[in-house]
């Protein structure tokens, strides 16, 4: 049986897979464009997107806006009419500016998490850009829907539900990530219940997209049977030729063992899942010292109290300087065995999902 297409407003993705946004610089125009070209929804990460611009350290705001415009245009050229999104974290200091710029560039979808994007419709209403919050609970989905309905007269075009097996920053406390009530299967059910009243008000379905730890075609089928309209996958797409990360970064994924995957305390006050390396071991041992903030990127970060600059660490990792940085990754990264093309990965995922659908 064929997989259902993923419909978000007037947009129709032939393959119900959203490639998760990964910063800094892991999912830019190359990865996002090629996912969109192959029928999925490709997603650029806006987090410090201008880190390769020559004036990044001296004119960061304009460097990021310039790079955002360039990567959207480049991804559009690659995708040949495919569906493109951008992930803009609420926690970004220039969140509003980045949203406005993405709308000007006519991006198809804005995905937004790392906080509640309560003001997002203010900047997108009247445009064709779809808005998709990323949540980690039914409660968060309900709060967003109530707020958007009351203040803007809109509902989300879709909702991404991210469970505790995701890579990067997590919307959970450390003691919650292994509890049954916080696992993705339960969260999907909770969100489906929470959004029902708003589906009735607006007389349309709000597609729910399952994310966090989804690795195989079988996983895709399983969550779609639970009521998800599609899935979001990030970690799998790092191990593709088209991913924007360095080869050294990708090799960390290939070489990761189950014991290498750890929960860390991020300088931005959240927990995250990453691959253990010397840099992180030094941080735990207290050997890193606070350094100057290179980008003032995230609202919750307090540079004077931080053991390292997370933007600096992630930029170094993206470029392959892993002695000065580290790689975020999902809980199933150790299952990756080789680097393939985006087309091959998506074909394999779809083929396997069909067998279990």
Write the layout of secondary structure elements.
Elements: E1 6-8, E2 11-13, E3 17-19, H1 29-37, E4 41-45, H2 60-79, E5 83-87, H3 95-104, E6 109-112, H4 120-124, E7 130-135, H5 138-152, E8 159-162, E9 168-169, H6 184-202, E10 208-211, H7 217-225, E11 230-233, H8 235-238, H9 247-255, E12 261-265, E13 271-275, H10 278-284, H11 310-318, H12 342-356
Helix pairs in contact: 1-2, 2-3, 5-6, 7-12
Describe the structure.
This protein has 2 domains: 6-246 and 333-356, Aldolase class I (TIM Barrel), CATH 3.20.20.70; 247-324, no CATH class. 37% of the residues lie in helices and 15% in strands. The mean pLDDT is 93. The protein has helices at 29-37, 60-79, 95-104, 120-124, 138-152, 184-202, 217-225, 235-238, 247-255, 278-284, 310-318, 342-356, and strands at residues 6-8, 11-13, 17-19, 41-45, 83-87, 109-112, 130-135, 159-162, 168-169, 208-211, 230-233, 261-265, 271-275. The termini are close together. The strands form 3 sheets. It has an 8-stranded parallel beta sheet with strand order 3-11-10-8-7-6-5-4. It has a 3-stranded antiparallel beta sheet with strand order 9-13-12, with no helix packed on it. A two-stranded antiparallel sheet has the order 1-2. The radius of gyration is 19 Å and the shape is globular. Helix 5 (138-152) runs parallel beside helix 6. The chain is built from 12 helices and 13 strands. The chain is α/β, with parallel strands linked by helices.
């Amino acid at each position: 049986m064929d997989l259902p297409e993923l419909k978000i407003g007037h947009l129709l993705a032939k393959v119900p897979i959203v490639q998760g946004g990964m910063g800094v610089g892991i999912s830019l125009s190359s990865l996002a464009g090629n996912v969109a070209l192959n029928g999925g929804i490709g997603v650029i990460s806006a987090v410090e997107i201008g880190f390769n611009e020559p004036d990044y350290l001296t004119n960061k705001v304009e460097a990021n806006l310039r790079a955002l415009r360039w990567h959207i245009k480049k991804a559009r050229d690659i995708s040949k009419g495919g569906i493109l999104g951008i992930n803009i974290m609420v926690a970004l200091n220039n969140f509003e500016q980045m949203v406005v710029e993405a709308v000007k560039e006519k991006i198809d979808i804005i995905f937004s998490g790392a906080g509640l994007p309560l003001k997002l419709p203010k900047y997108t209403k009247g445009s064709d850009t779809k808005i998709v919050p990323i949540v980690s609970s039914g409660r968060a989905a309900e709060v967003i829907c109530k707020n958007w309905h009351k203040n803007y007269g809109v509902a989300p075009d879709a909702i991404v539900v991210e469970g505790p097996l995701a890579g990067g920053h997590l919307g959970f406390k450390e003691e919650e990530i292994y509890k049954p009530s916080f696992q993705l299967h339960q969260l999907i059910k909770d969100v489906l219940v929470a959004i029902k009243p708003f589906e009735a008000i607006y007389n349309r379905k709000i597609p729910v997209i399952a994310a966090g730890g989804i690795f195989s075609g079988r996983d895709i089928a399983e969550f779609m049977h639970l009521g998800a309209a599609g899935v979001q996958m990030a970690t799998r797409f790092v191990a593709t030729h088209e991913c924007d990360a360095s080869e050294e970064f990708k090799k960390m994924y290939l070489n990761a063992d189950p014991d290498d995957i750890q929960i860390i305390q991020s300088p931005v006050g959240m927990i995250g899942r990453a691959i253990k390396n010397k840099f992180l071991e030094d941080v735990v041992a207290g050997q890193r010292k606070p350094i100057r903030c290179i980008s003032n990127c995230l609202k919750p970060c307090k540079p004077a109290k931080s053991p390292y600059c997370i933007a600096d660490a992630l930029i170094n990792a993206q470029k392959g300087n892993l002695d000065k940085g580290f790689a975020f990754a999902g809980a199933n990264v150790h299952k990756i065995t080789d680097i393939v093309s985006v087309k091959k990965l998506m074909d394999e995922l779809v083929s396997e999902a069909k067998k279990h659908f």
